[in-house]
Amino acid sequence: MADATSPSITLQDIEPMTFKAMLVFMYTDELPGDQELGDSPTEIMKHLLAAADRYALDRLKLMCARKLWDNISVGTFASTLACAETYNCPELKSKCIDFFAVEKNLKKIIFTEGFMWLVQKFPSLAAKLKERIEA
Length: 135
Prior knowledge:
135 residues; mainly alpha; 0% strand; 9 helices; single chain
């Protein structure tokens, strides 16, 4: 009951920029522009995807997934796929796996530190990637 009389509320596990972006979405049904997201809009999108999953904002979750997919690269592949797996985003996960299966991407991705981290932290994803390549 102390929160009801307090002039402020402290939220745990969410950065102020992420919370602000979530509020913008809740009031406007739109994502903030990249210029409003600071120096690393892709990282904010990953945090926003996590918040959308946590607070069951399915439309926001889908919009974040699309934005992450639009910005996927060899360098962001591992963290984006880990995010999709962690926050139950099957569309993004599927698109990441398809991105990996393209031979020119595969040859570059497997030599990144992010890929080594992904294989160690998510062995089930490593199996899915292998299965997709062998198909």
